[in-house]
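Consortium newsletter contribution from the modelling node. Members have asked for a concrete example of what our holo predictions look like. Here is one, prepared for the zinc ion complex that several groups have been discussing at recent meetings.
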Amino acid sequence: MKRSFSQRVKLDLCNITIKNNCCRRSFLYGYMFASRVFSREAIEMRADSPDTNRCLRALMDDVFGIVCEDGPKLTVKIPSELDRIFGELGENAHNTLNKDAFGCELCRQVFLRGAFVECGTVNAPGRSYHLEFIAPSDGRAEQIAELIAEFGMTPGIVDRPASNSTGVYFKGSEAVEDVLQIIGAQKAAFELMNAKILRELRGNANRCANCDAANISKTVDAAQSQIEAIGRMLASGAEDVPAELLETAKVRIENPNATLAELAALHDPPLTKSGVKHRLDRILKYAN
Ligand SMILES: [Zn+2]
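And here is the predicted structure:
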């Protein structure tokens, strides 16, 4: 079975090892919050793939000590089990997103990751940039939107009457990439950037067929090999790549035509030219 881009992103997100217990609970909370049946009477978590199913079962057992019956969805109906869950998340956690249930500064992001795995969708590279959380109600959509706004994002809200849901959506390459990074989908974010950059490089090459071709093709060649190296580096597992290399990778991909001096200035705080060169060399080494 061929997976869609959304499905691949969700699979990657499920496979991230969550270190803190508070964050594991936040993942489940996000997933429940995006589920249609999440009330004091019952909780139902649909799992649209065996991987998600397995991941949810393991977390439910680990976090709440609840072993759900086998099947395509996880159901909690026993009052004592519901008491345990709402005892930890807050008695009104299904109506109002309870930030007191968050235990560390990563929890908000992992909550959004859980919500995305339940109800999210993102277009594949090459199509228009669109990422959406398809929430089960207006109220939940607004609260998901508010939480993600805390990261400096400005989502749109749209009614989806056909599916009786409300969408929290992002358009444009930067917004979509940023949301993917917030929820931990680094590889997908870079895949989108890579696709964009290769399009731009091809466009430049075509436009410059008749101008100073030698010089431009030299810059383009260098950028292209760096970008390919970045792709290989990320394919080997973005979680293990040092943060400063990811930063430089991102700046390079977003600015394919920039010179070393320009790249240096684009870092925050700015680097020296040789500092950038050193990091790009490390990326090449990493990739090989
Ligand atoms: Zn946490």
